Amino acid sequence: MRRPELHIITNGKQALDDVCMRIAELSDEAKSMIDVLHIREKQRTAREHIAWYMALKKLLPLSRITINDRLDAAIAVRADGVQLAWHSVDVWGAKQMLPSRCLIGCSVHNIEEATTAEAAGADYVLFGHVFETDSKAGLAGRGVAALQEVVAAVSIPVIALGGITADHVANVLKSGCAGVAVMSAFFSTPNSETALRKIRDELDKRR
Fold first, then answer.
1. Distance CA 120, CA 105 (A)
2. CB atoms within 10 A of CB 77
């Protein structure tokens, strides 16, 4: 069985230096536990996204760094990964502008969006939010049952997002999803390496 993926997503609240420090302080073993690092900085310009990409590529392999939404920045750096939001350029359009090696993910919230993304050629989808989360204050989580329905509806990998901690991993993976994405569980904790290892351990138990 393929190893369940672990995606780490920046939270838009920290400076680049802080994010780089958290990654740099990880042991090499812990860094290898991160399958994808998403640069998700909605308030930042394309130029700032490029600066983030150039800084983070010194800490992680390029194949593991994805730029969220900012297709202009992804094109400029010839990124190996891009994550499209509902308001982004569609998958077909993105494929015309990005290197053929670039993995394209789509953020989805229901079966219709997931099947549309798959039909358009997305390599994977990020489904959320599964549980209640501070980044979606006041909105109830869609739940594991909704996640499972999306997993059953598509043949491409589905990554679960939203309020996920190590305690949720076993339940989430029962849906058949390909892995999890976390934000606060990594960036809002005093010890990112300990948090990362706990989540990775739970993922590896379910291989």
1. 11
2. 16
The residues annotated with a catalytic role in the active site are 129
- Say what the pTM is: 0.94
| Domains of the chain, first to last | 5-205 (3.20.20.70)
20, with CB counted inside 10 A (0-12, 13-18, 19+), is middle
CB 63 within 8 A of CB 83: no
CA distance to 22, 60, 76, 137, per residue, from 35 (Å): 16, 10, 23, 27
Tokens of 91: 């998958």
Contact (Cβ atoms closer than 8 angstroms) between residue 57 and residue 47: no
Span 103-116, mean pLDDT?
A: 96
Residue 136 CA to residue 139 CA, distance in Å, equals 6
Query: Residue 129: is the preceding peptide bond cis (ω within 30°)?
Result: yes
Q: pLDDT tens digits for 17-31?
A: 999 999 999 999 999
